Amino acid sequence: MNLWNRLMCTCRRRSPWLFHMNSGSCNGCDIELVASLTPRYDAEQLGVRLEGSPRHADILCITGPVTRNAVGAIQTVYGQVCGPKAVVAIGSCPATTNVFIDSRTLDGPLNKHIPVDVFVPGCPPRPDAIIQGVAKAAQILAERGNNPPIADAAPQVVGSGATECACNECKEVQP
Ligand code: SF4
């Protein structure tokens, strides 16, 4: 890796920019993501910044159980994030579809449609777990350099998983 690429990897690790997408969530995870950026948890102090356009982001954060309507939009937005990029699935919904597992309106889990690097389980996960997930994604990005994600690589699971979901599926991905 040349000097420029090493510099870019360091910048990405020190100041990852996020784009948030809701794929049908109940808003519980979205509120916790916003809370992680407020002064109490203050992810911005670590260089994390929420961006309004996927084209400016390094990390795509997705909440929700992936509705059929959202699949096309997820793939479009994933394509709009310039590489190298990482995906963080926030909450038990994108990992397992959670309590909505039998719903005919869903087409989850998320990693069926795009590569997922980090799962943050919980219903909803706490803001500190979300920050941990973003930090892990930034580390993955820095290590990956300009290489694309490895196909079929198992996502990392981070967070305490202390907030348990009502279904049995999520417990499989909780640490
Ligand atoms: S994981 Fe829980 S809080 Fe998050 S979107 Fe799903 S049901 Fe809502």
Can you describe this structure in just a few lines?
The protein is an alpha/beta fold. The protein has a single domain (15-172), classed as 3-Layer(aba) Sandwich (Rossmann fold).
Q: How far apart are the termini?
A: 34 Å
Class derived from helix and strand content: alpha/beta
β-strand amount: 5-15%
Helicity range: 25-40%
Tally of separate domains: 1
The major pleated sheet works out as: 6 strands, parallel
What would CATH call the architecture? 3-Layer(aba) Sandwich
CATH topology assignment: Rossmann fold
Stretches with pLDDT under 50, minimum 5 residues: none
Order of helices and strands: HEHEEHEHEHE
Q: Taking strands numbered 1, 2, ... along the chain, how are they ordered across the largest sheet? A: 2-1-3-4-5-6
Average pLDDT works out at: 86
- Tell me the Rg in angstroms: 15 Å
Count the beta strands. Answer: 6
Number of helices: 5
Plain-language structure description:
- This protein is of the alpha/beta class and 175 residues long.
- The protein has a single domain (15-172), classed as Rossmann fold.
- It has helices at residues 3-14, 28-37, 68-80, 92-96, 127-144; strands spanning 17-22, 49-50, 59-63, 86-90, 118-120, 156-157.
- A six-stranded parallel β-sheet has the order 2-1-3-4-5-6.
- Helix 2 links the parallel strand 1 and strand 2 (49-50).
- The longest helix is centred in the C-terminal third of the chain and has 18 residues, at 127-144.
- It starts with a helix and ends in an 18-residue tail after the last strand.
- Iron/sulfur cluster (SF4) is lined by residues 25-26, 28-29, 63-64, 91-93, 98, 123-124.
